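does this look right to u?? NAP version
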Amino acid sequence: MNLRRSFREAADKKLQSAKVSNTMASHILILLSMVLMVGRTCHAFATPSNKIALITGGNKGIGKEIARRIGTEPGFTAIIASRDVALGQKAADDLKESGEYECDVVALPVPLDLTDDKSIIAAAKHVEKEYGRLDVLINTAAICFNDPTLYGKVDHTPFQNQADITIRTNYFGTLKVTQECLPLLKQADSPRIINVASAAGRLTILRSQELVDKFTSNTLTEPQLSTLMEQFVNDVQNGTHEEKGWPNTCYGMSKLGIIALTKILARENEGMLINSVDPGYCKTDQNNNQGTVDPADGAYTPYLLALMEQDDEDDGEDMSGLHFYDQQEIPWSYQ
Ligand SMILES: NC(=O)c1ccc[n+]([C@@H]2O[C@H](COP(=O)([O-])OP(=O)(O)OC[C@H]3O[C@@H](n4cnc5c(N)ncnc54)[C@H](OP(=O)(O)O)[C@@H]3O)[C@@H](O)[C@H]2O)c1
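got this back:
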């Protein structure tokens, strides 16, 4: 199976059917969308026919660009989730006002903080109350101590102190969001989860074959994975992580955990498209804007995954549990 080709074909097909459909049904849908758009003033709104996409960390960077792309797609409503509601609203206002095309985007009016389970539960409840379901969850929010001071935003953070906050935010926070959203996703016709990972989470950062075997096991469960992530934190805090084969990167481990989690979720939720993406080295606050890729380009593959057809017609297999970079599936073991 040529994944790259079929991924492109599926995505192109979806784009075509959304934008230049040649079937009567699609014409009617597009007509309906246009009628709804004409009636829209400054407030975007969801209709039962709209697909609902929730984007965590949507207030800036890659997440904001994902919200722009999805919100601009006919038949989609993008919901920006952020830990600071005012920042989310500012981003939604900006997307609605600044784009070349109308963007159907709203800000979640309640905060979603990856380190606060209650906020995650409340955010999912809000989506349930407002929309009754969720079609796409894009887990974008994350922190990164590549620079130990987060580029001057915090005091110098020693490595031992980075582990707990990084794993708690990026891995356990994303896990909690996903767990709370799964019942809502199950209400959708073609649900999907896109986890924004990173090259930092490639398998080759692990320095022990035993760990590689554990993380890549086809029988690994979420509780077992979560225990491994906790072990990493404990070993870093005890100063024993190197001798146990863990890498010297908390961010990398958090993303490695996200890629492993993606594969587990895909196995456990047949019929859902659940994939991870490396967006590339994008110019955002995360790297003090030193990245080389426009965040709009980094947002392209997550956007295609949100839109692609449910099954790959080459062999009837769903494209789920895979890791993508630049529009194509890539092995987790890349260098
Ligand atoms: N930029 C790159 O080169 C690159 C490369 C590979 C992967 N990635 C991944 O791409 C995703 C987006 O990153 P980015 O580059 O766009 O970075 P960014 O501009 O720094 O955006 C990060 C987003 O995550 C949010 N966030 C951080 N901690 C949070 C928390 N506790 N609860 C809720 N939201 C939280 C931030 O909210 P605030 O505004 O409130 O801080 C912000 O919206 C991340 O998963 C990142 O790891 C980025």
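Residues 127 and 133 are 7 Å apart (CA to CA). idk if thats expected tbh
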